[in-house]
Amino acid sequence: MNNNKSFTKKILILFAISFIQINLFSENISFSANSMKGTVGNNSDTTELIGDAFVLTETMEISANSIKMSGKDFRYIEAQGSVKGKNLQSKMEFSCDKLKYDRETKIAELKDNVSLTDTQNDVSAKAQMIEYNQDSEIAIMQIDVELKQKDNTCTGAYAIYRKTDKMLELSGNAQIKQKSDTFRAQEISLNMDTQEISLDGRVKGSITDERKTEDTVVEEENSSTEAKTEKATENKTSETSVSSSEEKNTDTTTKTEEDKKTEETSSASKDKTKSEDKSKKSKNKSKSTTEIVDNTKSSN
Questions:
Q1: Which segments of the chain have a pLDDT < 50?
Q2: Alpha-carbon torsion 208, 210, 215, 217, what sign?
């Protein structure tokens, strides 16, 4: 009889499971896996899901390589290996290597290579440790923190993200980059709604004057336009010079031909004059000869 009571108090279960649903804390919890083992007792129940483990509560969805549920009414949930999940109320999605979740306090502890995304506010965060309170909607981030929102990239050793207030508090080598602007301080607060930044302690920063950049761009464009105009003018001048040169060459050629014609005319004229002179001389000579003959005849 005692053996039967002891057997009913503590049971070892080892079997393949497809889907189970239990009502706990007036909350439905569903889980599935390739296999399951566990113990059931008066003070504590333990169930371990192995292989493609999945747990679904009314507010949380968790999947991992293995998940262990323990405590009275499975209050605690621990997950390991390729952990992924989301909070169905606050629309927060996460991934990590290890997770612990208290279903009573609604606090989740995420460890190792943690990624957290607030899909409502378009915020993504990375850290080695993140503790998220589901009721207050506050995430506390530690070690190698990086958070991105709109044009902001925020880094630091420690950060508190208040989802409801849309506020971020950074500390430990805190830095915020907004496009080409950089702000550094011991503590930085960012209002993600108004984009207002508050800096405290050893404040440093660098800001790029966008107007100056725009002026430089306009200046470069003007310089380029001027260079193009000068080049066009040079090309036009060159074309004019070539045209003038061609006209000059044409004029020179025409002039040369005219000079040649003039010279030929002049030479012909000279030759004609010489010929006329020769003819006159010949006539004069003939006349003289005739006169001499006549004189000779008269003398005889």
A1: 1-25, 213, 215-218, 242, 250, 252-254, 285-300
A2: positive
Report the DSSP beta bridge partners of residue 47: 38, 69
Closest of 189, 153, 184, 142 to residue 170, by C-alpha: 189
Closest to 115 in 3D by CA, of 137, 148, 138:
148
Any bridge partners for residue 110, and if so which?
A: 99, 130
Nearest alpha carbon to residue 78 among 104, 60, 103, 99: 99
Q: Please count the CA atoms within 13 angstroms of the CA of 21 that sit on its side-chain side.
A: 4
CA distance 85 to 97: 12
Scanning the structure block, which residue is given the tokens 């440093």? 204
Q: Find tokens 């404040």 and name the residue.
A: 203
Domain ranges of the chain: 7-88, 92-97+105-208
Which pLDDT belongs to residue 63?
Answer: 97
This prediction has a pTM of: 0.62
End-to-end CA distance of the chain: give it in Å, rounded. Answer: 207
Query: Which CATH number does the domain 92-97+105-208 belong to among 2.30.30.40, 2.60.450.10, 3.40.50.720, 2.60.40.3500?
Result: 2.60.450.10
Compute the distance between CA of residue 160 and CA of residue 127 in angstroms, rounded to an integer: 12
**CB proximity list for 43: less than 8 A, separation 6 or greater:** 72
